[in-house]
């Protein structure tokens, strides 16, 4: 997965509370293979009318916020079902970080495994950030994982907490598979010892 270090990018305010994974990607799109179209599925039923036309009132369709790489949301972002495709849609659209007071637990775990930074800041701070973004469409936020800070458009830096393990994985771009493969030599050595000690556990392949 992609590593996350520092990001300065346009941020969009998502004022809705309890944004669930079906809002992030409706279930009818989950049967489709993961490809470049996944960004089109993000917030699909909020972004688009039934005839496919853009809804002018949705934030990501508005001037200044289209293509934002950071979202500043309200509480309980990513609640609902466990679909990892919600993170795929965010990633494909170009979102690298979501800032909110709280996240669905499974969503936060899926985000970590896909290089998406989920930043928790308190309700008042998130609300203040969204007000600044509303006042200045297209304004930039800076997210610095190494120093664990979010710098607002007005220059105020807000520190956030993140577990040491999660931080290290994001900085190094390591998901669960990468972490396992880091021990490849030890795994292969164990398999060789096991084959020598108990060969009956490893029957030859069928002809």
Could you give a short description of this structure?
The protein contains 9 helices and 7 strands; from the N terminus they run βαααβαβαβαβββααα. It is α/β, with parallel strands linked by helices.
- The CATH topology is given as Aconitase, domain 4
Annotation, overall tally of beta strands: 7
CATH architecture classification = Alpha-Beta Barrel
Number of domains as seen in the coordinates: 1
Q: What would the average pLDDT be, to the nearest integer?
A: 95
Helix content: 25-40%
Give the N-terminus to C-terminus distance in angstroms: 38 Å
How are the strands of the biggest sheet laid out side by side?
Answer: 4-3-2-1-5-6-7
Plain-language structure description:
The chain has 9 helices and 7 strands; from the N terminus they run E-H-H-H-E-H-E-H-E-H-E-E-E-H-H-H. It is of the alpha/beta class and 207 residues long. It has one domain: Aconitase, domain 4 (Alpha-Beta Barrel). A 7-stranded mixed β-sheet has the order 4-3-2-1-5-6-7. Helix 5 links the parallel strand 3 and strand 4. It is globular. The two termini are 38 Å apart.
